[in-house]
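In the current project phase, work has continued on tokenised descriptions of protein folds. One protein thus recorded appears below exactly as we store it.

——
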Amino acid sequence: MSISSSYASNRLTNQNISTFSGPEARRSQNTSTAFSYASDRLISQNISSPSVSEVSPSLELISLPQPSSNLELPLIDYNAAEIVVDGIPVSINRGFLAENNSFFREIFKKDGSPSYLLSNLLPFGKVGYEAFQFFLSYLYTGELNPPPLEVSTCFDEECAHEACRPAIDFTVDLMYASSIFNLPELVVHFQGRLVNFADKAYVEDVIPILLAAFHCQSDELVNQCVGRIARSEAVEPLHEKAIRKIHKALDWDDIELVKLLLWESNVTLDDANSLHYAVAYCDSKVVRELLHLGFTDVNRRNSQGYTPLHIAAMRREPSIIVSLLIKGASASVLTFDGRSARSICRRLTSIKNYNDKTEQGQVTNEDQLCIDILETEMRRNPMADDASITSQDAVDDTFDFKLWLKL
């Protein structure tokens, strides 16, 4: 029996065990894995099986390189190598991965270099550093560990983290890794999690799930996401042709053309939700020029209940958030489902991203800056129904948001 066949057996056994199983299930899984590894090594060496207490393979033993079981394949360099993920080198056991994973076996057959860039190996999608480490841990141990909280939970302490954006993004990364690295049992597992997310997530957070479903050829997940998005779509607006022209002019950063189109038609900036569009897709300079025209309601809701500030919080661009606040955008306005711009921003930001160190010379990172700006505005104009912010915390109305940024 080869190690690769043993791993296949282990993963099939573990497939029906929940990622977050209890202590008894975990001990049973570990014992099964240990027996399988030990049995393979002992059979190959014609040594009689030891007692249960003697079977305790370490990660070092499991990771030892083994000669290829397929003599028809070209020989693979079994020396150690590294894969660079998000700029961080990750040491790998080339022989172990080649023996136990068909994707890496083909990579190492073609290229025996000591270092690889993960982004160059992926045909689609993205796999971050933490997701790649999670994947390697599964290959080396045969176990699914709980996801790291710092990248799979958001910065909002009130969130249940059942479908917040960091949880979705991390699972999408794992879906890409499982599909690309040819681990069908993990594809089924993470597809199930994403199906659950698609039902609970805000519609704007379903898009990355849909893209992953398309690339990984998961028809069930594609249908789930399309149905979820379709239920939220608004009816086509009036004056659609004129509105599209205004949006195109904004894409070209041409405010003068926008003014000409407004003069030629009966459409207003608010009819076209021009500020919403610019905040979502345009440069911060275009947003400021549009605000300078003074023809738009800075707190207008679109058909989905979002104000421009809500969309700016989704984009997490500090300069746009500040521009809107200076022009009178209200941070206390809630979406139809009860979210403020601050809560939107917090639920899009993972704990890791909020606490990330910044480059030398920067005061803070942009994710942290967006949250801090919105929280300052909430203290300046506190909501009556938000017990966490009291009038005693309010700062003077003359607070100048330009102190945050050079606009």
Q: What stands out?
A: The first helix runs from residue 3 to 14.
